[in-house]
Design goal:
The protein has 25 helices and seven strands. By secondary structure, it is mainly α.
């Protein structure tokens, strides 16, 4: 974390270890862009490390061998994530990326002995992350071959002489690979499976730190190594981000699994970050450098804010799981009394993620909207069509995020316990609460004084949009070249004064009237009970109806008549499920085709060594013929 902050202040460094990797060696370099991701990863790791002391101790959710494996692998995972932004050559980058993938995979499946779903989640994650690696390998290897060198310094110099088809191919291929790591729709299917099944502090590392490196790859390759590109590149990025933001928050709004809800929220927030990155590239290609700098400021600031509140939310979700043994919001409730610290900290995280004033997410989304709406007067026809749609996406996703986290906090922590496990909940150990508290303090600092973070990002933003700072001021944010200002501290003070004044007024009015004791209104149904509360499913049902065509909910009604009569019903079973429509429509047919191909190919493997040698000889001969023709 200290190294990342130092890089943001201009203290860059580089190093080479020539004999560590065969042929290429290891090249490391830290510049301000790397510094952003080093600082964020380090800060998340500090919170997770403190939290993990209590989480993995005997008698906790991470007990036994699984807990020891997790605690042993977490430092390796963090080290790999730190090496990725520090890499300064293609080979070093790919080795660090693969090390990050392998260590995170081992952490995802660490608890496979206790839950069968973990193995399936690990399989999905393994396939998706390694397919992403193959795509990134192909793009960067082709880039290095065309540049006749693999160091990032060499790629920067050679990119100017590459033909447009080569540049386009490198960007598109690497964008697909990096977008899969960032959890961008439709390459997100591993994220809502792996994050819920991983240990909770590992989920925080993956959602708040690892997915950021997908954004890092897009920015590093697209802006730094390739030096920017045509408008259509960034329209693709902006469009992918917009789709991911909307689809992710819709899935989060109807989710009842707390960690799955947070995983889909990650899809939404990474989508918003890519909307900013895409807008920055669009403005830079159009010559609007001030707007490009503002859009990149919004994107990187939102990335930092997301890391803060998502760390807090996943750690709080782990605290709930530790205390109750369940992640099902429909089975929770009433946690406010037995878990006051966790309730307060989750409430802070929910506020930060809701894009409301006093929240850190509000500041970065406000900056993003400012960059988009100021493109309209002189942005041309494309901007006149695209930017209003982008503003609508940001606004709609912000509104749905509010509903999502009202549901998560209200249903999960308030009212009365719905199950015996929720009623017997207990507060988490001090170290777990301390880890959450550190994340909460960081979130509050980012919410009240975002100018410090925005000004610190200026050196990193210069990679994509060289020029003066787009945002100045610590307490009051001022946008360079635009007549827009905003002061989170003044907003916080005004809200505080308004709340205190309202409470004082109500107390003054109430003190003049005689008090009466009466039972709460219960519709004549008797004393209030947990059955009268809204569940997470019922709370989200109106939203599900509105977006029915997008979510495509599945319902199953099974009526079982009595054996002696076709008219008397013995049992009625109703099941409702909101699955991932993209997974159902896109991935299921592909998996079915692969399974059919595997069954059809079984006769080829008959155990004959001679046949296998023939296969190898035929393949080798075919490759030689193709290479000869290409020459």
């Amino acid at each position: 974390m200290v190294a990342g902050v130092a890089a943001l202040t201009g203290h860059s460094w580089e190093a080479r270890v020539p004999d560590l990797l065969p042929l290429a060696g290891v090249w490391l370099a830290v510049d301000p862009l790397s510094g952003v991701f080093l600082a964020v990863t380090g800060a998340v790791a500090v919170c997770v490390a403190v939290y993990g002391v209590g989480y993995a101790r005997p008698g906790s959710d991470g007990q036994g061998l699984d807990g020891r494996i997790t605690q042993a692998m977490v430092p390796l995972f963090v080290a790999a994530m730190l090496l990725v932004p520090a890499a300064a050559s293609v080979s070093t980058f790919l080795v660090a990326w693969e090390l990050m993938a392998l260590t995170s995979l081992l952490l995802v499946v660490a608890e496979h002995r206790r839950r069968a779903a973990v193995a399936e989640a690990g399989l999905w994650y393994a396939v998706m992350t390694h397919l992403g690696l193959v795509v990134i390998l192909a793009g960067l290897a082709g880039f290095a071959a065309a540049a006749d060198g693999e160091t990032f310094a060499r790629l920067r110099v050679a990119s100017e002489g590459l033909s447009s088809p080569v540049r386009d191919a490198v960007f598109v291929v690497t964008f697909v690979g990096f977008a899969s790591k960032a959890g961008i729709v439709p390459l997100h299917v591993w994220l809502p499976r792996a994050h819920p099944e991983a240990p909770s502090h590992v989920s925080a590392l993956m959602s708040a730190a690892m997915v950021n490196l997908g954004v890092y790859g897009i920015v590093r390759v697209g802006f730094d190594l390739l030096g920017g590109g045509p408008v259509w590149w960034w329209l693709v990025v902006l469009g992918a981000g917009a789709v991911s933001a909307l689809y992710g928050i819709l899935q989060a709004a109807v989710a009842t699994d707390l960690k799955r809800l947070l995983a889909y929220s990650t899809c939404e927030n990474m989508g918003l970050v890519l909307v900013g990155v895409g807008a920055c590239g669009f403005f830079a290609a159009s010559g609007a450098r001030p707007l490009a700098a503002l859009a990149m400021t919004a994107a990187l600031l939102h990335l930092v804010n997301h890391a803060g509140f998502k760390t807090l939310l996943f750690l709080a979700a782990g605290s709930v799981l530790h205390a109750t043994g369940t992640r099902d919001l429909d089975a929770l409730g009433g946690l406010r009394s037995p878990m006051p610290a966790t309730t307060a900290l989750f409430g802070i995280g929910a506020l930060m993620a809701s894009a409301l004033p006093l929240g850190s997410g509000f500041v970065s989304e406000w900056l993003l909207v400012q960059s988009l709406i100021h493109a309209l007067p002189s942005g041309g026809t494309i901007a006149a069509v695209v930017m209003p749609l982008a503003v609508a996406v940001v606004a709609l996703s912000a509104g749905l995020a509010i509903a999502t986290f009202v549901k998560a906090f209200g249903v999960g922590f308030l009212a009365r316990p719905r199950t015996r496990e929720a009623g017997q909940a207990h507060e988490s150990p001090v170290t777990m609460v301390t880890g959450m508290a550190i994340a909460a303090v960081c979130c509050l600092a980012l919410a009240l004084a975002p100018g410090w973070a925005a000004s610190g990002l200026s050196r990193a933003i210069a990679v994509a949009a060289p020029g003066p700072e787009a945002v100045t001021g610590a307490a009051t944010l001022r946008l360079a070249g635009l007549a827009s200002t905003m002061s989170p501290i003044i907003i916080a003070a005004a809200l505080l004064i308004a709340v205190v004044g309202l409470v004082a007024l109500l107390r003054a009015v109430a003190s003049r009237r005689a008090r009466r004791r009466a039972r709460l209104w219960d519709c004549g149904a008797g004393p209030m009970s947990a059955r009268m509360e809204y569940t997470a499913t019922s709370f989200a049902e109106p939203l599900q109806r509105v977006f029915d065509d997008v979510l495509a909910p599945e319902t199953d009604l099974d009526v079982t008549p009595r054996a002696e009569s076709a008219y008397l019903v013995e049992r009625v079973t109703y099941q409702a499920r909101v699955g991932d429509r993209i997974e159902h429509r896109l991935y299921r047919p592909v998996l079915a085709a692969v399974a059919w191909t595997g069954r059809a190919a079984r006769p080829l493997a008959n155990g004959s060594v001679h046949r296998y040698l023939g296969y190898g000889f035929s393949a080798f001969t075919g490759v030689l013929i193709v290479l000869t023709v290409l020459r």
